[in-house]
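yo

u said u wanted the structure for the complex thing, so here. seqs first:
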Amino acid sequence: MKAVILGDLMVIKSQAKSVLLVLVVWLAITVYNKSGLFFSALSVVYAMMLPLTCIAAYEKSRFDRYLFTAPVSRTSAAMGHYVFSIICALCLAAIGFAASVALGMSVREAVYSSSACFCIGIVMVSVLLPVIYKFGTEKARLTMMAVFVLFLLAFGLLLGALDVDMDSLGDALILLPALTLIVLAASAAVSVGIYKRREF
Amino acid sequence: MNIIISNAGGTPIYEQICSQIKGKIIAGELAEGDALPSMRVLAKELRISVITTKRAYEELERDGFIVSYPGKGSFVAGKNLEFIREEHLRQIEELMAKIAALAAQCNLSYEELAEMLRLTCEGE
Amino acid sequence: MKNAIEVSSLSKHYGSFTLDQVSFTLPSGCIMGLIGENGAGKSTTIRLLLGLAKRTGGEVKVLGADPEKCEPELREEIGVVFDDCPFPETMTLRDVRRILAAAYRHFDGARFDELADKFALPERQRIKEYSRGMRMKLSIAAALSHGARLLIIDEPTSGLDPVARDELLDILLDFIQDERNSVLISSHILSDLEKACDYITFIHTGRVVFSEEKDELLEKYVIAKGSESEIDALDPDAVVGVRRGAFGCEALVARAAGERLAHERASIEEIMLYYIKGDAK
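structre next:
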């Protein structure tokens, strides 16, 4: 697993400049909007983009096929990208949290909003990764767009229908971590299954 | 020790190795007890298959020229080389008798025969 | 271990192609050339040997274990070189070293550096900027630096100039000095690498045409040359294939039968060609 995570980190490192640029621009917009939530929300999307970028790089040079000839079990190869995604989502959530607090949000609210976005990010990745594993990154990009649009619609509709503020939403979202864990576990199981059956 | 193999001729490579090593042993270039290069090292240096060198060494051992000890290597055998030389001389004499008979049949003089022999030897 | 690879009646069924009852054995300490045209089934065979695909029939043992069922640890001892460099383009030599260290427990950094040095691979350049030959050399360096006992190389000659091929030949012969090591080279043209091969397995349209010692193979056949009538007079059972020309004919034929006519040694490539085209007798 270490090899996969390391590989992912290296791919991202090579794109460090554009990643940092994106983050800086977002932070700037976040500050301009005085809303830490903005960053947290957009980081959900980026949490999906990063593993996608890595796996696409692997596909291009057939690094994934090579790893299967190395002493890396199919299970740990599948899980490597998950771990990497979680690390990315955590970092982004941390930045979002810091930004929110710095911009005046209460710590409690900031914790709720950034952890909620973290969880949602993980859910998105959990939906995305099995699709990538099964169909490859090209087809998965479309899925990613679709999932994100649906998510926005659902979230927007939900907020509109309930018309609540952040605090009580935070309380209601206590369920989110549990839900996230379930989705993550299910996704991981599916992914491992896909990798075990995968042929090159 | 030099072993020169040729890919061009019809002689199989293992035979070439065999006869060259035999020749060196008979000529005294390789003395009894001398270590031969291992099959693998020889294969690497000559850039040929290990199976070829193995076959050459097996034949040399069969003919009593060398002895191979697994794990240790191959060494020139303590066979009585004089005996081998005499054996070869005897064979040459036999063949010469046959040549002489054939030459007589086509009225070949000794000088012409010697000339043919000279050309043959120089051709090698 | 007696045999590095044991393949018995291996079959794989794809939609348009079938690998049919392929059998061969690679004894330890030897180099085997797996030859055949493009699309003959060589790559499929290699994929099955590496557990990258699942076979539909037959048995496979690589270093004594079934690649589909073995523990990942067994792959520490298998070095693989594909025809393209598998490391992401954005990586550098240093990155590759770190990845290999993470993937293989017995990774030997010193050996990797030694080989990278020998191949003159630049330390800080991205793989994106490597030439074809350099990428190949990187793959080879990677495969040889984690204690592999079996080297499986797919199409090594593509992308390598004659000098590099010569270096590869040296490396393989060196590798084989330890008789626990074995090599399987798969190629549509072995060229100079055929010198070092101990065994040759020829795959054609999914089947093994022959799998034998290279020396025996080369001694078995000659290319006989003569007039059409002379060639046609040869025992048909001894003839593999005939090439008819405007000024005479050539045939790949068993040595005993062909020595009567003007003849010369057959190279492995020629043997392969005659087998493939031989049906047009």
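Chain A has nine helices and no strands. Chain A touches chain C through 25 residues (CB under 8 Å).
cya
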